[in-house]
Amino acid sequence: MIRYTSLGAKLWATAVWVIVGFFVLNLLAMIATVVVNSFATRWLGTWLPAAFTTRWYASAWDEFQLLDVLIVTMEVVGAVVLLSGLLGVPAAYAMARREFPGKQLVMLLILLPLLVPPITFGIPLATVLYKAGAAGTIWGVILANLVPTVPFVILIMIPFIQQIDPRVEAAARVFGAGTLRMFIHVLVPLLAPGILAALLLVLVRTIAMFELTFLTAGPTSQTLVVALYYAVFAAGVRAGQSIDAMAVVYMVTTLLWLLIALRFVNPTQIVTRAKREAH
Amino acid sequence: MRSEAGVLISGQVPLRVRLAQRGLDGVTLLVLPAVLFIVGLFIYPFVYGLVLSFEPKEGGWLANYAKFFADPYLYTTIGKTLWLAVPVTVLNVLVSIPIALRVRLMRRQRLLTTILVVPITLGTVLVAEGLLNYLGPRGWLNRVILTIGFSDSPVRLIHNYWGVFMSLVITGFPFTFLLTLSYITGIDPSLEQAGAMLGARARQRFREIMLPLLFPGLVITFCLSFVQAFSVFPSAVLLGAPAGDTRVISIAAYQAAFEDYDYSMASAIAMIMAFVQVLIVAALLGLQNAFYRGPAGGGKG
């Protein structure tokens, strides 16, 4: 281990930590502002609000029909998690175990939806879904959200599958198991931690996926983050505290699942999986 | 697959076995549903959008593109988006390098990485709402500025360029940093230690050892961060001036599709957006190939 002992090195290290501290402080203060405001009676030009109340949560619940929005969100997220697992895990198995002509091309096909930003491919995708009559419905939202999550599951699962000894599968085959039975009785139990991690990450990403849902959702198929966008967009119509109460509901939902996910994955995995496979 | 190949090599080889020898069997077919899905919902819409962009509501096949580059309200969006995305990405990458170099030596990185993953997870809409409060004229930041006496009236930080800039730093910096950190931790630490033992100072070690090994990773980090910043949308609407300084290209595409219902024009703008992104990424990768030659990986990575 290299030790940094000179004065210059210590000053440099301090400067680095001051920048990190400043960033984290602003980040936490920004989140705290939303939380404090959601409990505020009036908050005008002072450090803290005049008094605290919980009534904004009741009004936000009614005004924004949060129950309906939460149900839609859970339906979308549940379907996306399930379908991306069903499509992604078998594909990852084939990619991990077989060398076939055109594999590079398939890999590129899997990487592209993760590299192209959602708003860029979302507009042509929404156009196609509108032509097909699927946009505006909950199925349109689910289909659009699956576009980045299926490749995401494949990329996470490939290394998990590669580290399983192929002789385990060979043994299952010797005892007469077909691909389906081998999957259900051998692979899925062995891969359970990986599948769990991948699907939890899909869950967190889908709750927070704004662009694709925004472009394809109709009035009855909005998820929480899109409803929040419309509320902020029309700020002034409703009390700011009410919007912040909704923002807190959104934050709690997202961060709760993030905390659960972080029990199974490393934080850096949320960002770096796509890149690891890139070369 | 392997042993039967030898036996059957001379005689009549069944098609199934020949396919299996090339890696095509029942297991390979498992990739098909996912591939069909991506082709159907990613490739097809892109091609459809490209074709649609050449079938404008009125005029010849290039009318949409001609209109885009003739109307300052449309073509200036490219410059405005670049003017946001490039400085933010440069700042995020430059700040990430020294911090990642330090954090790599930390034993307990997990607390910091967990905190940094929060803004990425919450997403741009929530960050926009939070910053509207926090940076607003009555927000905490302006109270601090007034209390210190840095300025006698609240500084305007929202509904302009700087609001969007800061939202891109809040969500973009953690993303850039975590990518950089993963590249830096992939470099074998013994390489730097060898340099130190041979008497290289910290600055020399960075310039002669770490930077060359890190460079390819930094270029990819820059590309990914840039593409994200270039496609900024919700915070440009909520925190910026969506009719003025921060009328980014995604706003123009959105308005064409969902306010004018001109899907052909919207597709054309989306294609221009994709083209600019590809152009910048290709230019960066090209520059890297021109200026940097050497092993792509850094030791154990």
UniProtKB/TrEMBL annotation, chain A:
Gene Ontology biological process terms in this record: transmembrane transport
Coiled-coil regions listed in the entry: none
Gene Ontology CC: one annotated term: plasma membrane
Compartments where located: Cell inner membrane; Cell membrane
TM ranges: 12-40, 69-93, 105-126, 138-161, 182-208, 214-233, 245-265
InterPro entries from the UniProt entry: MetI-like (IPR000515), MetI-like_sf (IPR035906)
Record bears the keyword Membrane: yes
Domain ABC transmembrane type-1: 70-261
Keyword Transport: yes
SUPFAM superfamilies: MetI-like (SSF161098)
Membrane topology label: Multi-pass membrane protein
Keywords carried by this UniProt record: Cell inner membrane, Cell membrane, Membrane, Transmembrane, Transmembrane helix, Transport
Annotated family: Belongs to the binding-protein-dependent transport system permease family.
UniProt protein name: ABC transporter permease subunit
TrEMBL record, chain B:
Family stated for the protein in its record: Belongs to the binding-protein-dependent transport system permease family. CysTW subfamily.
Transmembrane segments: 26-47, 82-101, 113-135, 161-184, 209-230, 265-287
Subcellular location: Cell membrane
UniProt cross-references to CDD domains, sorted A to Z: TM_PBP2
GO biological processes: transmembrane transport
InterPro entries in the record: MetI-like, MetI-like_sf
Gene Ontology CC annotations of this record: plasma membrane
Domain called ABC transmembrane type-1: residue spans: 78-284
Natural source organism: Limobrevibacterium gyesilva
Its membrane topology: Multi-pass membrane protein
Protein keywords: Cell membrane, Membrane, Transmembrane, Transmembrane helix, Transport
The keyword Manganese is assigned to this record: no
Source organism superkingdom: Bacteria
Stated name of the protein: Sugar ABC transporter permease
